[in-house]
Write a structure and sequence with these properties.
By secondary structure, the chain is an alpha/beta fold. The protein folds into two domains: 174 residues, Flavin prenyltransferase-like (Rossmann fold, 3-Layer(aba) Sandwich); 203 residues, CoaB-like (Rossmann fold, 3-Layer(aba) Sandwich), CATH 3.40.50.10300. Helices cover 34% and strands 23% of the residues. Strands 12-11-8-13-16-17-19-20 form an eight-stranded mixed β-sheet, with helices on both faces. Strands 2-1-3-4-5 form a five-stranded parallel β-sheet, with helices on both faces. The longest helix is centred in the C-terminal third of the chain and has 18 residues. Bound molecules: cytidine-5'-triphosphate.
């Protein structure tokens, strides 16, 4: 999601500095390169070696500058950065920046920066409420600095109140929003379903299918890259959700139905890549079912058709379905497009080599509401995701 993005993270001396290790990990996992500048006070709370290890990059501190007397590398870094974050930002550092004081590496570097700046203040509640401090933050905010937090909660000093640094996840999300502010899908809310569902027979056995979730997860990642706000409702899969999505994990078709319906009113695009079980056992045994000498017939009952339900409730949303077929692809896909009131259906013949479940590629055909069709060649699921989002974008702008 943040591949190629260059982040400078300034860490100042507060107890929350230890949380920056997790923050760095989130950025690195999302593909960004992170350079850390530590103040001397911050080193009391987190070590340069730790941050160097998690970022894989040299950490900058006063010592580094002292031993590289003629280097202006840090100023160069500041100029190349896509975002400059200070977390935690102490009252002291906020005060210095607001008043143009540049007396250490961090405050000097930030003065040479032209990229967006995000501050995550952390301090004792009384310090936070101090009018001088508030004035400093307000001044920075009016100059375009973005501020995330602080939050209410228990503080390290034993007090409880406003002053706790926002969580690494919230700082990450805020940073992504800033980095994505010029992205084409910014502000677009996308709901994606992925993976299979499992319908339990007893505590040991269940009915399911071969879906790996790869297509849905590739779509979630691609939508994030375009700047969308993504909710991923996922059945049980072996994949790690992309950093930055809101993940809702479900097991059964009914749970997926509930999760999807709860989000539906507040989204703009729905892509139903999940392979939902159409039937579930009529009863689920609480104990392990024991075998007998007789054969067995299972009674199954229908699960709700989530997409058909969405088709009935559809308002502003664009509705995209998938159709996994083994025969009469066109006829079945067009039937589902119409019956479920979709804007587009992505159909594939799962018997074709390189298509369908559990492989990294797919061969799909798009069927549109207006009768158009488009056959794509064999592509990776990532490429299919990008093609599909591009196509959805065209539909969206035509709406
Ligand atoms: N779908 C759904 N809820 C269900 C079954 C399917 O939302 N209970 C969605 C799938 O996520 C997919 C589309 O409907 O986007 C088509 O799913 P598919 O399994 O191909 O078709 P079905 O409608 O289940 O019909 P059939 O199994 O008879 O082919």
């Amino acid at each position: 999601m943040l591949t190629g993005q260059r982040i400078i993270l300034g860490v100042t001396g507060g107890i929350a500095a230890y949380k920056t290790v997790l923050l760095c990990r989130l950025f690195v996992k999302a593909g960004a390169s992170v350079r850390v500048i530590l103040t001397e006070a911050a080193k009391q709370f987190v070590t340069p070696v730790t941050l160097q290890t998690v970022t894989g990059n040299q950490v900058y501190d006063e010592l580094f500058i002292a031993s590289n007397r003629y280097t202006v590398e840090h100023v160069g870094l500041a100029q190349e950065a896509d975002i400059f974050i200070i977390a935690p930002a102490t009252a002291n550092t906020i005060g210095k920046i607001a008043n143009g004081i540049a007396d250490n590496l961090l405050t000097t570097t930030i003065m040479a920066t032209t990229c967006p700046i995000l501050l995550a203040p952390a301090m004792n509640t009384q310090m936070y409420e101090n009018p001088l401090q508030k004035e400093n933050l307000a001044k920075l905010s009016s100059l375009g600095y973005k501020i995330v937090g602080p939050e209410q909660g228990e503080l390290a000093c034993g007090d409880s109140g406003r002053g706790r640094m926002s969580s690494p996840e919230d700082i990450f999300t805020e940073a992504v929003n800033l980095l994505h502010k010029d992205k084409p899908w910014r502000g677009r809310r996308v709901l994606i379903t992925a993976g299979p569902t499992q319908e339990a027979l007893d505590p040991i056995r269940f009915l399911t299918n071969h879906s790996s979730g790869k297509m849905g997860y590739a779509l979630a990642e691609a939508a994030l890259e375009l700047g969308a706000t993504v909710t991923l409702v996922s059945g049980p899969v072996k994949l790690t959700p992309p950093t930055g999505v809101t993940i809702i994990s479900v097991i059964t078709a009914q749970q997926m139905y509930d999760a999807v319906l709860a989000c539906f009113d507040n989204v703009d695009v729905v892509i139903k890549a999940a392979a939902v079980a159409d039937y579930r056992p009529a009863t689920t045994s609480e104990q392990k079912m024991k075998k007998s000498d007789d054969d067995m017939t299972l009674a199954l009952i229908r699960t709700p058709d989530i997409l058909a339900q969405l088709g009935q409730r559809k308002q502003q949303q664009l509705l995209i379905g998938f159709a996994a077929e083994t025969d009469n692809l066109r006829e079945h896909a067009l039937g589902k497009l119409k019956q479920k009131n979709l804007d587009l259906i992505v159909a594939n013949d799962i018997l074709q080599e390189g298509a369908g479940f559990n492989v990294d590629t797919n061969i799909v055909r798009f069927f549109f509401r207006d009768g158009r069709e488009r056959q794509l060649e064999k592509l990776t699921k990532r490429e299919v995701a990008h093609e599909l989002l591009e196509t959805i974008d065209e539909l969206y702008t035509k709406k």
